[in-house]
C-alpha cells in the first residue's frame, strides 16, 4: 500500500489510542472537504518553506527590528528608564524559555502546520497589543523649546539646575502593556523555530534538509533588516502624524533635529498585525504531513548517537502523556553529543547577539560616525553576511552529503577560521580624537575629565544634554553650551555657532573656510581611515561564524531519536537564551561601560549614560570576549566529535512499515 488515503486518515484516532504510532497523515491542501486544486501547487516542501520564510521574516521585523529601533522613542514617550525598557526587551526571551520545552514536547506528535497557524495568530496579536499604548495615551505634549547655547545670567531663559524629585507620571503604567505584547510575541515565536524547523526536516530527504533549513534561517534574517529600514523611515514621521500648531511663542514647532521630536513608532506594528494574521490562512490548510513524507522517512537511515543504552526502546512510546516529560528531558540531557553542540551554539549566540546589539555603538565611537550611519553600516554588514553564511553552509552540507560526524568536523573548521578573523580588532582600531575637558584641557585652562572651565563657568550647562560640536580648532566639545557659544545662525540650511568663548584659533591658517564659523554640529571628522578594512574583515568573520548555525541545527536533529527532534530543538532554544542571547548583550554592555571615560551625571549625582569611551580599551575588551567564546565553542565541538558514536549498521536497516515513525531517525 502507498501513502495513507483519506479513509485511513479518518480511521486513525484523534488522540493517543491503542496503536503504538499512527502512520503519517498525508492529504490534500485545504480545509476539510474544501481542497481547491490550485492549493495543491503549494502542497509540497517548497510551498511550506515559502510560508515558513514569510512568517520568519515578519517575526524578525517585529521582534528584532521594530522593537529595537523603537525602544528609545518609547523611553521618551512613556517616561521609562533603560532598565525598564530592558525588561521589555527581555520579556520575549522569558516567554520563549518558559514555553519552549512544553511546546516542542507536545507539538512533536501534533499537527505542526496548525501549530504554526497558532504561532501566526499570537505574533499578530502581540504586535497589535504592543501598539495599543499609542491609542490610549493621548496626544504627545512636546513642551517648550530646549536651548543648547550658553545662557548667562543676563538672558531671559534659565535652566532648572536644581535636584527635584520629578512627579510620577501615569504614563509608566503602559510598561505592563508593552511587556504583555512581548510575552505574546514570545509565545508566537516558540513553535516557529522548534516545530516549524522539525517539520522541514520531516518533509525532505536527509541530504536536502540542510539546504531547506539554511534558506529558512537566512530568510528570517531579512526581517530585522526590513524592520530597521521601515522603522527608521517611520520615525521621520511625527508621532501623531500631524504636528500641532501652538499659540504660545515658547512652544516652537518641532522638527527632526529637535530633541523633543518623536517619530511614529506604532504604525509598522499595526501594519504587521494585519500582514501576520493573513499567514494564518496558508498554515491552516497544510495537511498533517506533506505528500511523500512516508517514503522519505522510509529511506532515511538512523544517525542517532549510540551510547550503548536502549534509547530507541525508551523513546518508542514517549510523548503519550505529560508524565513522560521528565523521562524524555533526561534522555536528551544525558546525550553528551547533543549537550556539547547546544553549549557550543549558546557560546556563539552570546557573541552574535552582543555584536548585533553593540556593533553600531562600536562603529560610532571607533570611527567617529553618526548613530544613524553607524546603525546602517552595522545592518549592511551583519544581515547580508549572516544570511550568506547560513545559505553557503546549507549548500555545502547538502552537496557534500555530510553525515553527522562530518557535519560536526565541519563546525570545527568554521569556528577556527572565525577565531583567526576575530583578530581584526587588534589592528583595525582607532584612538580618540581631541575632546575638550576629556582628553585635553580648554586651551590650557580647566582640568581633564571636567567639562567645566573658566570659559564656560557662567553658562549653566547641563551634562545631561549631549550635543557634540566640532570647533574650528579641530577639537570636539560636549555641547554648544560647554563650548561657550552664545549665538547660532543657519547658512544654507546648515546650523553654525558663533561667539564661542572656549573655541581656540583655527589650526589651518591658510584656509579661509575656517573663519566662516566657530563651530558646527556633530563630531569632528576622524583621521582614522581603517573603517573599510574593519568592515571587510568583520564581514567575512560574520559569514564564517554563521556558517555554523545551519549545520549545528542539522547535527542536533540527526544525533537524537526521531521522536525527540522537536523536543531537542526546544531544549536548545532554552539553553541558547539562558546562556547566549540573554547574557550576551549584558556582558557586552558591561565591557563597553568598563571602557567609559565620561559619564552623564545629573544634578542629583545620578549616573546615566556614557558619553565618551576609550576606543582602544573597548576594542581589546570586545575582542577578548569574542575570542574566549570562540575557544569555548571549539572545545565543545571537539568534545562532540569525540563523544559521537554512530549506530551499528544493523540498526540502520529499513524497518517494518508499522514501526516507521518510532524507529527511523534523521
Automatic annotation (TrEMBL):
Kazal-like domain residues: 449-504
Pfam family, any one: Kazal_2
InterPro entries named among the record's database cross-references: Kazal_dom, Kazal_dom_sf, MFS_dom, MFS_trans_sf, OATP
Domain Major facilitator superfamily (MFS) profile: 49-642
One annotated GO biological process: monoatomic ion transport
Span of the signal peptide: none
Domain of life: Eukaryota
GO CC terms, sorted: basolateral plasma membrane
Region described as Disordered: 1-29
Keyword Nucleotide-binding set for record: no
Main location: membrane
Keyword annotations of the record: Cell membrane, Disulfide bond, Ion transport, Membrane, Transmembrane, Transmembrane helix, Transport
Membrane topology: Multi-pass membrane protein
Transmembrane stretches, start-end: 49-71, 83-103, 115-135, 174-199, 211-230, 264-286, 337-359, 379-398, 410-428, 533-557, 569-592, 621-644
GO MF term set: sodium-independent organic anion transmembrane transporter activity
Segments of skewed composition (Low complexity): 1-14
Cell compartment(s), UniProt: Cell membrane
Family under the similarity heading: Belongs to the organo anion transporter (TC 2.A.60) family.
UniProt xrefs under PANTHER family: ORGANIC ANION TRANSPORTER, SOLUTE CARRIER ORGANIC ANION TRANSPORTER FAMILY MEMBER
Name this protein carries in UniProt: Solute carrier organic anion transporter family member
This protein's encoding gene: Slco4c1
